[in-house]
Design a protein that fits this description.
This protein has about 280 residues and is α+β, with helices and mostly antiparallel strands. It has 2 domains: about 80 residues, Phosphorylase Kinase, domain 1 (2-Layer Sandwich), CATH 3.30.200; about 190 residues, Orthogonal Bundle (Transferase(Phosphotransferase), domain 1). Strand 1 and strand 2 form a beta hairpin. Helix 3 runs antiparallel to helix 4 and helix 4 packs antiparallel against helix 8. The radius of gyration is 19 Å and the shape is globular.
């Protein structure tokens, strides 16, 4: 498909990145630079487009220092277009840019500070009965030195029963970062803790996800999504030797990447862990 025309009052500068659900461009308006994300409508049914619009409106309504605000939502016959603040990089590129030992004291403090802010953001969403569903390195950007959560295309509201189970529907897709129980209906907000554990793992280790999860995904790339989740549900993620040398950080990652959600820390408990009290 050919690239769309930029809205008349925005001048396109360059493409920033292309993701699975859209393309992000750097644009300019009245001498100021912004990020503009385009979501192609031809990939979705009409009712799915309406769901995405509702989710964008949810994001636009949120006010938190670590959530990237939606400034404007535009639409034409081919695309939904979301205007946001322009940020310097995402956490994936932030990790790649580190020039010193990732376990060095100054870098460790930076990671702890960033991670705490993201945990507090997820807790803010939980307090509003919202779940992001797609927390990962690429969905946290750095803006003026502050981490901000982005890409709320998959956000959902939920209600809980007395046992803490939600009415969230099972996902029919597979992501490295998704908790194994997300293939079941009524999973709990402990999926947030799993995704936060994967994010922390990616910040502390020079690889996006544990090796055994990656190998399982590659082996079962074309299998039914339940088969891929079964492996993760029965096998704790592998912990590399470099992370084991940092016992406090390793303890938190291990407690977050528990395949059994009943054994996994909740988001509030993450903030009480010694790793974030240093």
């Amino acid at each position: 498909m050919e690239e769309s025309e930029c809205p008349s009052d925005y001048n396109r500068i360059q493409k920033i990145k292309k993701g699975t659900r859209g393309t992000v461009y750097e644009v300019e308006k009245d001498g100021k630079r912004f990020a503009l994300k385009e979501i192609s409508k031809d990939r979705f049914q009409d009712d799915q487009i309406e769901v995405i619009k509702k989710r964008l409106e949810i994001q636009k309504s949120l006010e938190h220092p670590n959530i990237l605000p939606v400034l404007e939502i535009l639409e034409d016959c081919e695309f939904l277009k979301i205007v946001m603040e322009l940020c310097s990089c995402d956490l994936l590129n932030f990790r790649k840019s580190l020039k010193i030992d990732p376990m060095g004291s100054s870098t460790r403090k930076d990671i702890q500070h960033i991670f705490r802010q993201i945990v507090e953001t997820v807790l803010y969403l939980e307090d509003k009965n919202l779940i992001h569903n797609d927390i990962k390195l690429e969905n946290v950007v750095i803006h003026n030195g502050i981490p901000k959560l982005i890409d709320f295309d998959m956000i959902e509201s939920y209600v809980c029963d007395e046992e803490g189970k939600t009415d969230l529907s099972a996902y029919r897709t597979y992501s490295y970062y998704m908790a194994p129980e997300m293939c079941q209906h009524g999973y709990t907000t402990k999926v947030n803790s799993w995704q936060l554990g994967m994010l922390l793992y990616g910040l502390l280790v020079d690889e996006d996800i544990p090796v055994n999860i990656l190998q399982n995904y590659q082996r079962n790339r074309y299998a039914d999504y339940r088969q891929r989740y079964e492996f993760v549900a029965k096998n704790a993620p592998s912990i590399p030797e470099e992370l084991e040398k940092e016992p406090i950080a390793c303890d938190l990652v291990t407690k977050l990447l528990q395949p059994d959600p009943n054994l996994r820390l909740c988001v509030k408990e993450i903030l009480e862990h010694p790793y974030l009290r240093v």
